[in-house]
Amino acid sequence: MDRHIAFDALHNFRDLGGYPASGSLRVRPGLLYRADSLGKLRTGTADWSRFLSLGVGTVIDLRHPWEVAKRGRVPADASFTYLNLSVEHRPYNQAVLADDIEPDPYLAERYMEVAEDGVEEIGRALELVAKSAETGVPLVFHCASGKDRTGQLAALILGLLGVGEETIVEDFSLTELATPAIVATWAAREGRTPPWPGFGRAPGAVMRRYLTSFKDRYGGVEAYVEKALSLDPRQLSTTLRTHLLEPRPTTHPPLTYRRATPSDAPALVRLRDTAALWQLARGIDQWKPGEKTEAHFTARMREGEVWLAHADTRLTGAWELWWDDVAAWGPRPSDAGYIHRLMTTPHTSPPGTGHRMLTEAESRIRATGRPYARLDCLASNPRLRAYYESAGYRVVGEQAAKEDGLGSPYAVTLLEKRLG
Q: Is this model's pTM higher than 0.70 or not?
């Protein structure tokens, strides 16, 4: 599931559903959305029809009133209630900050100001989320880019729902997928590039630092709700969990596979970047968003094979299949297929998707008469090595300085499986 819902004018409209919560539960899809400014919507457009089709009953606009007056609000409609709750009391202009300002400490400090200043509006927003949850009618909250003020409210809600900190950091960082569009929109409007390199960025380290400061000052989400917002945290959390959580699915559709074509390249880039953000939120320093472009995947389609896995109609995973890999394995006879970039959609892929994709890739290798399946992983990633070993692969060596064309050699562990 791609959390970003496609709009022409909006770039950061996301469903918070599907995230895992405690007790084998997950956030119910289709009830809680976060977004960039809905003031960009226009009636009579495909965007407007798409928005109305979501059945939203409440729109919370977290921007300053002057932002609403200058940039516009969501068009009025009888199907939903609109409320402007400006949580930020000390405005600042990110786009024109000095280029030497580091995003992590600067933004985390601004977020702490909002948590301190905006208690009345934040409390009201949480009450509205709870009321909406009780009625089962979807709600969306937004600011300008759907990153900072929206990210803080999302973190509070997810924390009250029992979603883990790593996932909250991941959710914040998913704005990185929209950063190029956010920057381009600002540049088109202002006629110049934003002076601050951090504009539109959402590195996970920002949210991680903020959550640490937040816990140091308030003691945690429930303590903040009680002491700063003067709300009953147990009642609020119970209401939210009762109506916004559901058991994680126990049955799943079977996976189907097809070979990728060049038209699939954008989806492959997005899948890899999403997986990279999942890794970074958990301290796994392996992939970075933006490293692999559409040109990379179309080249792999020409020189080897790229495969997609679907559950029903949803893209749930993919992998590359090479017929040689000199960079990692050196010159070899044609006795193996080399599996690369095995990736799944975080949180929503059926359990066991990765192992099933490995099995499918192995069957394709076996069909060519090659007796081995080979792959590699970063030597510094024992978790991934253990995963491959659990699928029947054994360590057969190490390449101390693999080159991938990016100019930074790295060490990889080489793993191999004899195919029956």
A: yes
